[in-house]
């Protein structure tokens, strides 16, 4: 019988990205990546056309990612907090531009490699498994300016050089790897999420890039080949480790507004939009609904001989994903999206929302639905590597924050993970996003706070950077981990 409990080897912890927390954006040899020229993913990148090529236009800009929350210098302190909570796993990313500052060098930057050696060593010393994303909105900017990024097949070799170096360097230290973070966001956030840029623009300022659907599918294909080559390489270098895909899957939990078959078909089609990379990375083929779109649109990506054999033969070991909220679709209505998922029609059956100004619908059952959907379609282990809630918070006169809403949000989602496990889903772990306040990926500011740990910093980048426990959620999550979830 399937048990309503977490396995003894369930991984408990939290997740961040290098670009949102590290800071030190030009320190020790690092150069600019795509997140260093944007005030949040929902805003256009700060780039200018100099008459011959794109250049960063950030001289007079305050971009909070440049300092992050200074994890680069505070990581020992921050990891100590996580160890106090009992974390058995912590997800972060390697900033590609720390290892290969331009991305196309033949030899890596030793100072960048040493930083991650020190970080992973400290985690292991504290009993925390590193879960490492190879690319989390951190493509070196030079690769976009000079080559167009993933619009260019040369990227596969640049990428393979990078991953070969880090796999060899951290063999035995990192057992869980993720390839491309939320790569399905390529189609809505192409510059940062997809690492692509039209290097022959029709305008001199980037608003919505001059990229066609054909461009994005071509980039997707090169990324799929790179993903397969990455799986092939890790099995060659370190066969004891595991490697997974990482997708943004909140929008996969899309309910039809009514029983009208048109609404049901609209929901299915919207789900299909989230599944391309799942099908490529987990099953190794292009699904029929994508081929139909190619045919009706009159384009097909350039697919070289051997590409599909690689994609088919080197699929991932597990599915990692983010889930924050569900959405509802009505036929004919346009869906809005942000970094947390999609917004559509109102769901009258959801009565709990996060506080203003973000007001996300809270749907824990959606997470159970998602786990079962993935299990039914792909039959792979599942790793929940992002789930959390951003709230406006400030210290009171006693330097305390009461965050009951966060505790309730996590508790209700964990209950549904238990139900999914009892349904037969193999869930590897739960990594809360993000255990320490970091710069929001979507807004580029810090006032959308997720952490169990508060960082004294404001939206202008000013503050002491001192850390404070949010005692309510910090102590509660600590007890959850101590009991292996038996107390919820």
Automatic annotation (TrEMBL):
The keyword Cell wall biogenesis/degradation does not apply. GO terms for biological process: carbohydrate catabolic process. InterPro entries: GH, GH_1_N_CS, Glyco_hydro_1, Glyco_hydro_1_AS. Keywords: Glycosidase, Hydrolase. GO terms for cellular component: cytosol. One of its GO terms (molecular function) is beta-glucosidase activity. The active site is at 386 (nucleophile). It comes from the Bacteria. PANTHER family: 6-PHOSPHO-BETA-GLUCOSIDASE ASCB-RELATED, GLYCOSYL HYDROLASE. Belongs to the glycosyl hydrolase 1 family. This is Aryl-phospho-beta-D-glucosidase.
């Amino acid at each position: 019988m399937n048990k309503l409990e977490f396995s003894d080897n369930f991984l408990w912890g939290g997740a961040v990205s290098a670009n949102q927390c590290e800071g030190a954006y030009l320190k020790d040899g690092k150069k600019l990546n795509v997140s260093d020229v944007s005030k949040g993913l929902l805003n256009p990148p700060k780039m200018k056309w100099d008459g011959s090529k794109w250049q960063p236009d950030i001289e007079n800009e305050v971009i909070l990612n440049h300092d992050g929350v200074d994890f680069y210098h505070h990581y020992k302190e921050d990891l100590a907090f996580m160890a106090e909570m009992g974390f058995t796993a912590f997800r972060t990313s390697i900033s590609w531009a720390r290892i290969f500052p331009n991305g196309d060098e033949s030899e890596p930057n030793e100072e960048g490699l040493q930083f991650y050696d020190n970080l992973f060593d400290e985690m292991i010393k504290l009993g925390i498994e590193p879960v490492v994303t190879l690319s989390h909105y951190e493509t070196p900017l030079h690769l976009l300016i000079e080559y167009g990024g993933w619009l260019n097949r040369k990227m596969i070799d640049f990428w393979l050089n990078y991953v070969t170096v880090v796999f060899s360097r951290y063999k035995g230290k990192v057992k869980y790897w993720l390839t491309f973070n939320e790569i399905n966001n390529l189609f809505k956030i192409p510059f940062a999420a997809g690492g692509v840029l039209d290097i022959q623009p029709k305008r001199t300022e980037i608003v919505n890039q001059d990229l066609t659907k054909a461009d994005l599918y071509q980039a997707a294909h090169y990324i799929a080949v790179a993903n397969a080559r990455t799986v092939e390489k890790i099995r060659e270098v370190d066969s004891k480790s595991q490697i997974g895909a990482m997708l943004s899957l909140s929008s996969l939990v899309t309910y039809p507004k009514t029983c009208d078959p048109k609404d049901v078909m609209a929901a299915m089609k919207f789900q299909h939009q989230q599944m391309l990379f799942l099908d490529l990375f987990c099953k190794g083929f292009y699904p029929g609904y994508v081929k139909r779109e190619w045919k009706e649109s009159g384009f097909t990506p350039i697919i070289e001989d051997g590409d599909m054999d690689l994609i088919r033969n080197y699929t991932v070991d597990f599915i990692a994903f983010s889930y924050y909220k569900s959405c509802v679709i009505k036929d004919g209505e346009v869906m809005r999206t942000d970094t947390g998922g999609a917004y559509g029609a109102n769901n009258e059956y959801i009565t709990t929302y996060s506080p203003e100004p973000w007001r996300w619908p809270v749907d824990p059952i959606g997470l159970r639905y998602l786990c079962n959907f993935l299990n039914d379609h792909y039959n792979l282990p599942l790793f929940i590597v992002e789930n959390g809630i951003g709230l406006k918070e400030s210290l009171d006169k006693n330097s305390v924050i009461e965050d009951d809403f966060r505790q309730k949000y996590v508790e209700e989602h964990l209950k549904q993970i238990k139900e999914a496990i009892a349904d037969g889903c193999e869930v590897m772990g739960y990594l809360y996003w993000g255990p320490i306040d970091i710069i929001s990926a979507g807004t580029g500011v810090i006032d959308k706070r997720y952490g169990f740990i508060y960082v004294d910093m404001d939206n202008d980048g000013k503050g002491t950077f001192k850390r404070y426990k949010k005692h309510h959620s910090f102590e509660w999550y600590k007890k959850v981990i101590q009991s292996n979830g038996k107390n919820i």
